[in-house]
Amino acid sequence: MVEEGNTPDTRVDDTGGTTEIERRYQKIFEHSNDAVMIVDIESESFVDVNPAACELLGYSRAELLEMDPASIHPDDFDRVREEFIRDILEEGTGFTDDLHCLTKDGQEIPTEISGAALDPAPDGERSNRMIAILRDISDRIARRQELEAKVERLDRFASVVSHDLRNPLSVIRANVKLAQQNDEIERLDKINETVDRMDDMMTSLLQLTKEGHTISDPSEVDLEDIARKSWDGISTDEATLAIESSVSFQADPERLREALDNLFRNAIDHTSSPVSISIGAIERESVSGFYVADNGSGIPEAQQGEIFDWGETLEGDGTGFGLAIVSDIVEAHSWQISVADSNEGGTRFEITGIGLV
Fold it and tell me: How many CB atoms lie within 10 A of CB 197?
């Protein structure tokens, strides 16, 4: 029955039970996709939690009601008390997108939290309770990190285009001018070399900028097969390839071939005399992976930790992008790459953590 003077939204039942609007809010509370928690501000304890909160944090409702907010976000609680709770008490509402919640199994989840004071107190008295709505923003964080990585790669591209390519362009202009003035056609050879150098840089930069840390769906690959395909596009009279052994594992075939291309070219480009390159499976207990080794001049130990850095090169005419691309591809597969001296005195790259099939 509806009492006189009450609207349908504020009616009470014959027994003085909950109003219709209260029942509606209870449904919203129970069926919300976001975690909703009622908190007693003074005692810093949970008064009620909805099923989504239990699912997000991995606790039962009974367990959460025995806990306090500090147990859910221990690393952030002091800051939350000083900033978020202060805003609730002073302004009636609060928000932050920088809160890490700890689940029952110890997983840390980035969340955003919005809150509001409940039961506004009359005469300026502060409310004792608040409603807090938590939302998992893991996907948003991952997307933001992906965009930040893309921006970083674009920044790298822009910095090289605007700075590093100015030198070869200056060489081209100077040699063209001298060739025109002195009818020295041989200077065109220098121009061609410089143009080739610029083309290599642009190819590597575009490769790094467009692809970065992404791979397509992995499939089963055979190391020998992919190594031969890579070598067919690189083979030169200045180098030989020996496939010592093979192994099958899961990988993105195109990006793996791209990594081998760069490792092979690195061995060839950094050796003045004909170089012998070998590739094979790593045969050590508890280690799954493969190696690429050469008999070149090697990499000084002091510089081995830097060679995967973007733009790092041991040669004055190197782009410094080849091994950075290899490192990105390895990281995209969740593998690991290391470098050491080979048995022949050259360089040995080891890629480990591959999933054998």
Answer: 17
What counts of helices (H) and strands (E) characterise the chain? Answer: 12, 12
In this predicted model, what pLDDT tens digit does every residue of 318-333 receive, in sequence order? 445 678 888 888 988 9
Please tell me whether residue 268 adopts helix, strand or coil conformation.
helix
Average pLDDT over the chain, rounded to whole?
A: 80
* DSSP E strands, 104-158: 108-117, 129-136
In 127-147, which positions are buried (b, 16+ CB within 10 angstroms) versus exposed (e)? beebbbbbbbbeeeeeeeeee
Give the separation between CA 67 and CA 103, rounded to whole angstroms: 12
Q: How many CB atoms lie within 10 A of CB 267?
A: 24
Among 95, 38, 315, 329, which Cα is nearest to 197's?
A: 315
User: What domains are defined for the chain?
Assistant: 32-136 (3.30.450.20), 139-212 (1.10.287), 214-357 (3.30.565.10)
Classify strands 275-281 and 239-243 as parallel, antiparallel or unpaired.
Answer: parallel
pLDDT confidence band for 287 (50 / 70 / 90): confident
User: Which contiguous run of DSSP H or E holds residue 182?
Assistant: helix 166-182
pTM: 0.48
Number of residues in the chain: 357
First to last CA, the chain: 71
